[in-house]
Amino acid sequence: AAGPAFLFHFAIAPIGAEELLLAASVLFWFATRASFDRVRDWLILGVLAGLSTWLHEGVVFLCLAIAIALFVERKVRVRFVIAFAIAFAAGYVPAIVARLRGDPLLYTRTLLSWSFAEVVSTFAEFFANDLWLLLGGLAAGIAVIVFAIVGLCGRAWTRAQVIILATLAASFAFWLFTTYGYPGAVRYIVPVVPLLYGAAAAGIAKCRR
Q1: Which stretch of 140-149, 186-195, 199-208 has the lowest confidence by average pLDDT?
Q2: pTM of whole model > 0.90?
Q3: In whole angstroms, how far apart are CA 193 and each of 27, 142, 164, 188?
Q4: HEC string for 108-169
Q5: How far apart are CA 172 and CA 183, in angstroms?
């Protein structure tokens, strides 16, 4: 099956979307299957989060969403947080070593000054082009959004649903209200794509019952 349209633009010179998609998928898979009643689960989550953040810092929105979901479920304990922090540092070691060695940065962003006019412009560009670029086209994007809403509503809240909604909220807030993103660079929020498509699949299944 064809993926998001913007991935095809990166086929010659990948710039991070592929790594972010892989890391986010593994994180989401583990976060929705582990019980998190044992230290071991938090250690694994920490290592995965650390490695994922090293691969692409865009995974931070999913990490935040997982933290929110576990807090809502009252899974958070001091010993678990300590275990997670130690494991995260271990997973993030490659980035730490690179910083200590003073390795040159391969990419930096020049951020614009924040302004209300810039936010309005970002909203306009996002809903005119970027959202549909992210979801695979206008028709497909509208269908995905509609079925995702159906899939996420009317059911008892699960950890997966909380993670999906929190990731969507954090990712879109970042994109719309900061000056980090720019037209066409939706790779920064690519983890929302499989989450929305998964929710849409649940919505389609619900409609067929």
Answers
A1: 186-195
A2: no
A3: 14, 13, 10, 11
A4: CCCCCCCCHHHHHHHHHHHHHHHHHHHHCCHHHHHHHHHHHHHHHCCCCCCHHHHHHHHHHH
A5: 14
